[in-house]
Protein 1
Amino acid sequence: MIAETLVVERGVSAGDAWVTIEPANVKSALQSLKNDGFRLLVFLTCVDHLVDTSRTWPARYELVYELRNMETKEQLRVRAFVDGDPPRIDSVHDIFPPANWEERETYDLFGVVFNGHPDLTRILMPDDWVGHPLRRDYPVGGEVVEFSEEHETWQTPPPDA
Amino acid sequence: MSTTAQGVTITKTGEQGAFGGELLTVNFGPHHPSTHGVLRLIVDLDGEQVRSVKPVIGYLHTGIEKQMEALRWQQGVVVTDRHDYLSPPINNLAYALAVEKLMGVEVPPRAQALRVIMSELTRLSSHLVWMGTSGLELGAMSMLMYCFRERDTILDMNEEISGFRMHTSYIRPGGVMADATPRFFEMLDDFTHTMPGHIDEYENLLTMNPIWRSRTIGIGRLSPEDAKVLGASGPMIRGSGIAWDLRKSMPYSGYENYDFEVAVSDDCDCYGRYLVRIKEMREAVKILRQALDRLPDGPVNVDDRKMLPPPREELETSMEAVIHHFKLFTEGYSVPPGDVYVAVESGRGENGCYVVSDGTHKPRRVHFRSASFVNLQALERMALNHMVADLIAIIGTADTVLGDVDR
Amino acid sequence: MGIEELAESLGQNILTTTLGKVVGWGRGNSVWPAQFGLACCAIEMIATATAGVDIARFGSEAFRASPRQSDLMIVSGRVSQKMAPVLRVVYDQMPEPKWVISMGACASTGGVFNNYALLQGVDKIVPVDVYIPGCPPRPEDLLNALMILQERIKAQGILPRQ
């Protein structure tokens, strides 16, 4: 199991077990979990808590790593909260190769910089796109739907690509 | 901006190749007949041999995850159809299961059985498209015609049950859209009797066909260790001998009640994956037969008025029904705060939905774990030192759907 | 473009209208689409080409891979910001006379998706002749659109398009 010293908080959400770790410990935590049998990185993504007032979050960006042990079918969600402009965290592509493209996608859509990633470039948006679309302060874009309840605050004309 | 559009753009890289020439960088542009959608590959060629493959994706990025944050929970179902567009009900199922897990509701058995029926029909339809287009790319053009003929039968059934041929939005959080008509069950009954004969037809055409075998045996090898390390799922990992199928290993929606085998092949190459998909089609027909025979009676939706609208007759007599109806159709239901991940087995592998809720009527974040996104990373490993023509076979065997990759 | 210059110099008279009818008939009955399948609508486009709903009956026997050999671009699917310049380049490579059918809601107006990532309608970058609504439209809808386009082509004759 994950070393207790690395765990900041743990819990269960709708049947899924999760632990929170410090972002500086992400490589050691994931390596120790991999040695324990959690050898599959199911996904890696980020959640932006900018406008969430339902509780106080440790930081704006929450990085989520879902690990699975294919022999015991256990799953564990590892969360790390990062802040900053741009937010930085270590890359885990050497521990879990599928993280390569997932980290590029998270960089592209959220702007999280992964230290040590071999090729951190945009993967889904055009190479010269400005901005990180999935951040909460980036508008949905598209065409303004007039008289809709959201049209002033959420749907603003997109920046020129 | 990278604008090289299509066909073959050649730039010499100057490196020495093994055959005495130089390495050529060739662009399999996004507009290409054989790339299964808008995939761009930058291939380094040494003569005819592939030295490296670099996929460039993003040409179908639709902003689905952002779009879902702007839509209410029940509106989001419509959008989930469209990322893996060859298996829409399976995408719906992942989202619906995730929302139901957060809400803490469980759908009645009849809904679970109908969900299994739709998932297996979709798995068949997705494999049929795969086989038709793979056959087309490797020269077996008549496969396209035969496979799409069967697929049309399945789409007619989709239309019967939901009104839509492809993007059904049939499976929704709380149950399914509506109960199936008797005609649907007649069509399904006919289908389960005729489909095994059609699968035999496809096997007669391809399995012992010397051209098909020489184009797929030994091509695109992915060892079991590589498959596990690269996080492959679906036929990519089962074609390498590892019997990992979410329907058996981590069952959902009542799959533990059905008797079926996991299709596995030890060949580790394109031919092995083809055999796996054929076997999966046969097992899907078996599951459909069992589901149809044992279909339980009862309601098809969860009986929670905070989540689903009341029947229209009640609106005439009950004030609460009117209030529930009003709230559901204006603001929509709210999901308790929390986050959950649910994975289902699609034709491509593990398709999952990670939902984060902050307690309001719109999702905070919806992330789709896409099987094709992860499987495509294995392309670089599988295509090394093969010929350019084999590259086409390898892209086909990965069965990537670019909508799923780019979301 | 020789025939169009000839038509312009002769003007509208019985010689050019009869010739126009013949040319229009020829062009309309042998429209060769360029493969431009992007997303879900592409699967329905492939279904239109298969035996159940055969598009080859209407002259579109060959879905050419190269835009230089085709005269119809069926944009089937959503056009993302990254794909838009590619689409324009492919359109520019098609020789005149060329037509565009925008198949499906996403290609016509952005469809279900109203966000940063998609062009809200392919007519923002290429001129469209026929729009097909639907998500995805039935294969018969694509045939209907092709038939409407064929009427237009026959009516146009040999005069160059504005």
Protein 2
Amino acid sequence: MTARVTVLYFASLRDVTDMASETFDTAAPDLRVLYIELRARHGFALPVERLRVAVDGAFARWDDAPRDGSEIAFIPPVSGG
Amino acid sequence: MDAPTLAGRFRLSETPFDVASLRAELLDGRVGGYASFEGWVRDHNDGRTVIGLRYEAYETMALAEGERILEDARTRFAIQDARCVHRTGELAIGELAVWVGVTAAHRDAAFAACRFVIDEVKARVPIWKHERYAEGGADWLHPG
């Protein structure tokens, strides 16, 4: 089973990827594994433990499966205010 | 000074915004107390001299999460209304970065809710600060 997803990159993650988003097919069983795969591919410094994950604009759980057509964002520690 | 363009209670503004008009939006005969918080761009952080910064937001989620925080504040505290505007883009030292305004019949709830809103915004709204330093270099702030 694969799902076509769009992953959004922000802040230090975007600096590394040099792109705002990418769309691809993934066979990752959950969002944690998806991040681990992307971290290996792009060389992100931040480990999964320091991030949160959002799906379609709301915080989600790391053990959620990637849903076909969804927009996924890995959220580095925020620093607004 | 532009008025923020989005009509929600939580807004993002790419340009400097006017606090007086935001305060005026909260005027209400039922209100006896108004508490506000302003966060300004500071010229130092963690021992380094800051010369400017940039805020980047995951805009659609930031707006949704910000609205959820203001809704939480109305549920938890006896307040009349709560609003927040956060800047994005390039900011200079001393510029207004974030504004929170809360109205209530009585001051205790206004103060408490104002504190709650700024703390929650800093904890969970997807906005990131990128600082530039006098000594050279720049960094994303990813606290924790």
